[in-house]
Amino acid sequence: MAPLRDFDHLDDAQRVQSPRPETPEPDSRQGRRNAETGVQLLDVEGRISDKFERCLAHIFAKYCNPRPAAPSRRSSSLPRQRTQSEATTLLVPPPDAYLTQVGLDRWAKDTNGTAFSEETKDEMKGFLDVTEAGNLTFKGFLQIYQVQTENDEEETWRDLSSHGFDRTLTLVTSRREDLDIEEPIDKTQVQPSTLVEGASA
Known about the structure:
Layout: H1 12-15, H2 50-61, E1 80-81, H3 84-87, E2 98-99, H4 101-112, H5 118-127, E3 136-137, H6 138-151, H7 153-162, H8 176-179, E4 180-181
Antiparallel strand pairs: 1-4, 2-3
Helix pairs in contact: 2-6, 6-7
Protein name: EF-hand domain-containing protein
Organism: Schizopora paradoxa
Region (Disordered): 1-40, 67-88, 182-201
């Protein structure tokens, strides 16, 4: 059987041409690939940048216990959809917040499509910052993303995208459930329907 392709005729330049030209050069450092846009996941010392930390705080706050205070909004007795600015307000977790096992599983499923195995959860408890009960703290959450970003920046960008952030670390709501708010209806505030046009009074 003859070989499918004979590559002996290719010169060195043709052989090593990358099919992914956006891949960084070997001497570039992970977390610093967006130099032209000014958005970096890691700062010059290799730590999580302030803007990236605010994004991670928002993601963590969606799953943490105790829940963060809801962003203030005008009072209304009728159900409504949030405005674009309300929908993109970043959440801030309470100071002593943590992810319970349920919150950790929800975050993992929303981020990667599946929960962590028990073995992975046990490893996390051994290496990351957790509460005495073994629940992941925000500091531990940051540790996950510090290591991941140093080793696989694109994985971090995929995680951010799955939670609604674009490449400028701006929250861009694209999921309907991120826009809907259920507010109780105060029936004393509902206005009666107007008469149908054309009906005589």
